């Protein structure tokens, strides 16, 4: 992973030559929106492709396995790439690769090949990984170190906006498709993703042409020993693994759970609107949680939220109708602060090991690939409602981390 300087000397040496900090931040914010949008589109793809190819839930969850598997395979190589070509060209490269991946959905639909869809999704995900590795430190460096957290929270808010809008977009253009034959259903995916490919390509061209403020890479001072000696970091990586896995599993299952696979409340298109509410709750909860943590310790807020999420899932499993639906939708509100809170607790006190620790935590995002697959196997064998028990175990571990695991040995 590439480390960047955040001291005042570095910032003074990066006075904008061309676009100023505010203009650059506004442009970078569009990236956070786009990758949030593209990531959440998977929640629409899963039920659509499941019906199109008559897949089991396990087979449908290969969408998330492929997408989040790219994080595990590409996080470290992406850091090496950025180190060679720089942050600006890293952003351009990430956008370009993501555009190619989105464009590949067109031939995937034409060939009616699930394997082709998964390949296109993997290419798209690789682009997003490169994009994230480049954009996050760029945002942190666009200003003083004291306000870096504020800038990241702002851009993450637009990431959540993307996850909120995507299900509405996908429901209208994809799930609301009335075609009876497979070819017609497959074609419903072509134009939305071709439009996304064009949008990504246009943004890539803009980034290639504009003059962004330069940020300076510096080598992190080599630390003796291994980052693996920090108990709270390793336990934190497991917490990231379980959190991302549980959140992705729930988001992926909502349309199926509200429809024919579970509660029988809605058709796919209408169910997708409640997926938007799920992610919208996460956006609202992020701002509420940020204010609360000014007064209450992060570990206590994390513990409370993990208990609330587990309780809501239990309620959904034991009830029916709208009570079961809304209890699961509300999970998004309490999920909101978990990732950044776990991340912060896990790197606390690492000092010169912080960069290495961040790399370990990024690799743990692979939970979004593995846990949904396990949930899919459970759903196919024991029913989707019962499969949610797996996510309760995940949040139980997060409660342990909040109470004891985050403490330094």
From TrEMBL:
<dbReference type="InterPro" id="IPR050375">
    <property type="entry name" value="MFS_TsgA-like"/>
</dbReference>
<feature type="transmembrane region" description="Helical">
    <location>
        <begin position="233"/>
        <end position="259"/>
    </location>
</feature>
<dbReference type="InterPro" id="IPR011701">
    <property type="entry name" value="MFS"/>
</dbReference>
<dbReference type="Pfam" id="PF07690">
    <property type="entry name" value="MFS_1"/>
</dbReference>
<feature type="transmembrane region" description="Helical">
    <location>
        <begin position="324"/>
        <end position="347"/>
    </location>
</feature>
<dbReference type="GO" id="GO:1904659">
    <property type="term" value="P:D-glucose transmembrane transport"/>
</dbReference>
<feature type="transmembrane region" description="Helical">
    <location>
        <begin position="359"/>
        <end position="378"/>
    </location>
</feature>
<keyword id="KW-0997">Cell inner membrane</keyword>
<dbReference type="InterPro" id="IPR005964">
    <property type="entry name" value="Glc/Gal_transptr_bac"/>
</dbReference>
<dbReference type="GO" id="GO:0005886">
    <property type="term" value="C:plasma membrane"/>
</dbReference>
<feature type="transmembrane region" description="Helical">
    <location>
        <begin position="116"/>
        <end position="140"/>
    </location>
</feature>
<keyword id="KW-0762">Sugar transport</keyword>
<dbReference type="GO" id="GO:0005354">
    <property type="term" value="F:galactose transmembrane transporter activity"/>
</dbReference>
<feature type="transmembrane region" description="Helical">
    <location>
        <begin position="193"/>
        <end position="212"/>
    </location>
</feature>
<feature type="transmembrane region" description="Helical">
    <location>
        <begin position="271"/>
        <end position="289"/>
    </location>
</feature>
<keyword id="KW-0813">Transport</keyword>
<feature type="transmembrane region" description="Helical">
    <location>
        <begin position="89"/>
        <end position="110"/>
    </location>
</feature>
<feature type="domain" description="Major facilitator superfamily (MFS) profile">
    <location>
        <begin position="24"/>
        <end position="408"/>
    </location>
</feature>
<keyword id="KW-1133">Transmembrane helix</keyword>
<feature type="transmembrane region" description="Helical">
    <location>
        <begin position="301"/>
        <end position="318"/>
    </location>
</feature>
<comment type="similarity">
    <text>Belongs to the major facilitator superfamily. FHS transporter (TC 2.A.1.7) family.</text>
</comment>
<feature type="transmembrane region" description="Helical">
    <location>
        <begin position="384"/>
        <end position="403"/>
    </location>
</feature>
<protein>
    <submittedName>
        <fullName>Glucose/galactose MFS transporter</fullName>
    </submittedName>
</protein>
<feature type="transmembrane region" description="Helical">
    <location>
        <begin position="152"/>
        <end position="173"/>
    </location>
</feature>
<keyword id="KW-0812">Transmembrane</keyword>
<comment type="function">
    <text>Intake of glucose and galactose.</text>
</comment>
<keyword id="KW-0472">Membrane</keyword>
<dbReference type="GO" id="GO:0055056">
    <property type="term" value="F:D-glucose transmembrane transporter activity"/>
</dbReference>
<dbReference type="InterPro" id="IPR036259">
    <property type="entry name" value="MFS_trans_sf"/>
</dbReference>
<dbReference type="InterPro" id="IPR020846">
    <property type="entry name" value="MFS_dom"/>
</dbReference>
<feature type="transmembrane region" description="Helical">
    <location>
        <begin position="21"/>
        <end position="38"/>
    </location>
</feature>
<feature type="transmembrane region" description="Helical">
    <location>
        <begin position="58"/>
        <end position="82"/>
    </location>
</feature>
<keyword id="KW-1003">Cell membrane</keyword>
């Amino acid at each position: 992973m590439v480390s960047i300087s955040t001291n005042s000397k570095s910032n003074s040496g990066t006075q904008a030559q061309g676009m100023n900090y505010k203009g650059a931040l506004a442009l970078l914010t569009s990236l956070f929106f786009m990758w949030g949008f593209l990531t959440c589109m998977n929640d629409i793809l899963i039920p659509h492709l499941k019906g199109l190819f008559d897949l089991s839930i396990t087979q449908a969850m290969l969408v998330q396995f492929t997408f989040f598997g790219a994080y595990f395979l590409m996080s470290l190589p992406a850091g090496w790439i950025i180190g060679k070509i720089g942050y600006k060209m890293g952003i351009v490269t990430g956008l370009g690769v993501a555009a190619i991946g989105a464009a590949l959905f067109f031939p995937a639909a034409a060939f009616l090949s699930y394997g082709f869809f998964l390949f296109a999704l993997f290419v798209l995900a690789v682009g997003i990984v490169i994009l994230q590795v480049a954009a996050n430190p760029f945002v942190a460096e666009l200003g003083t170190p004291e306000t870096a957290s504020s800038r990241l929270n702002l851009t993450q808010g637009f990431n959540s906006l993307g996850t909120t809008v995507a299900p509405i977009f996908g429901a209208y253009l994809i799930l609301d498709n009335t075609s009876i034959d497979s070819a017609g259903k497959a074609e419903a995916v072509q134009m939305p993703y071709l439009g996304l490919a064009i949008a990504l390509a246009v943004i890539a061209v803009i980034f290639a042409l504009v003059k962004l403020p330069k940020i300076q890479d510096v080598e992190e001072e080599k630390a003796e020993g291994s980052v693996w000696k920090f108990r709270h970091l390793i336990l934190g990586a497991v917490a990231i693994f379980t959190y991302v896995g549980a959140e992705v599993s729930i988001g992926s299952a909502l349309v199926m759970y509200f429809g024919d696979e579970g509660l029988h409340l809605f058709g796919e298109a209408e169910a997708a609107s409640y997926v938007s509410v799920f992610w919208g709750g996460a956006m609202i909860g992020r701002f509420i949680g940020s204010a609360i943590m000014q007064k209450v310790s992060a570990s206590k807020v994390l513990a409370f939220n993990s208990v609330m999420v587990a309780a809501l899932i239990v309620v959904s499993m034991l009830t029916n109708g709208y009570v079961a639906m809304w209890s699961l939708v509300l999970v998004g509100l309490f999920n909101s602060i978990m990732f950044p809170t776990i991340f912060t607790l896990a790197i606390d006190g690492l000092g010169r090991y912080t960069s290495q620790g961040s790399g370990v935590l990024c690799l743990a995002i692979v939970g979004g690939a593995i846990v949904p697959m396990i949930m899919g196997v459970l759903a196919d064998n024991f029913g989707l409602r019962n499969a949610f028990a797996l996510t309760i175990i995940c949040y139980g571990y997060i409660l342990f981390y909040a109470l004891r695991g985050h403490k330094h040995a």
